[in-house]
Amino acid sequence: GENVEQHPSTLSVQEGDSAVIKCTYSDSASNYFPWYKQELGKGPQLIIDIRSNVGEKKDQRIAVTLNKTAKHFSLHITETQPEDSAVYFCAASRSGSGYSTLTFGKGTMLLVSP
Amino acid sequence: NAGVTQTPKFRVLKTGQSMTLLCAQDMNHEYMYWYRQDPGMGLRLIHYSVGEGTTAKGEVPDGYNVSRLKKQNFLLGLESAAPSQTSVYFCASSYGTSSRQYFGPGTRLTVT
Which of A44, A72, B17, B46 could bond to A36 as cystine, CB 3.0-4.6 Å? Predict the structure, then answer.
């Protein structure tokens, strides 16, 4: 089955800096890669996702890049703000025949200091 | 729209007791999922359903049962709770495979 590795496990940055979280996956057939943000005491919330036919996707201060050859994808947050502090999870799955459910990384705790 | 709701929010059980967690969604999603979240382990899939009346095992199904009698509801049952089932349980739903999953607020379960 799929295996998703996520690094780092914790990340501390100053407000205004950029933050990068990296994930690798093992199943070359995976074609859907979402990122979730989980605030304390709440359920995960989807913040951005990318499919394997796209190399990069942006949404305001958030961007995700995908390298299918190397089987890794990354979340980039620019101009970080204290409200970006949360746990972030990456995940991977494949659709179509041989469908697989989402496999999650273990999470990255992002701390943004004012 | 309420999205995905879960009841109860908190529960304490004694070893051997049983309980049912209820998940409801009002988005007409076909797929529903139950995950557990433990410190340092991320989210692990317990069971899921691809439509009314169907269920399938996930990564960690032992000790749990599920039912999907109505499209909007997905029930997770613990027949004989064990301390190893102490966790936070999340329900999620989506339109289909590799579609965006929407999560509920979670149920914190403690088994003593």
Answer: A44
Let me know: does B69 contact B3? Beta carbons within 8 Å: no
β-strand A72-77 against A62-67: which pairing, if any?
antiparallel
Question: Which residues of chain B have a pLDDT value below 70?
Answer: none
Element (H, E) at A33: strand A32-38
**Three state DSSP letters for chain B:** CCCEEEECCEEEECCCCCEEEEEEECCCCCEEEEEEEECCCEEEEEEEEEECCEEEECCCCCCCEEECCCCCEEEEEECCCCHHHCEEEEEEEECCCCCCCEECCCEEEEEC
Contact call for B98 and A89, based on CB within 8 A: no
Contact A56, A64 (CB under 8 A): yes
The residue in chain B having the minimum alpha-carbon distance to the alpha carbon of residue A9 is: B40
B-chain residues near A95 (CB < 8 A): 96-98
What is the C-alpha separation between A31 and B34, in angstroms, rounded? 22
Q: How far is A107 from chain B (nearest CA, A)?
A: 6
Asked if the Cβ–Cβ distance from B43 to A44 is below 8 Å, we say yes
Confidence of residue A1 (pLDDT cuts 50, 70, 90): confident
- pLDDT band, residue A110 (cuts 50/70/90): very high
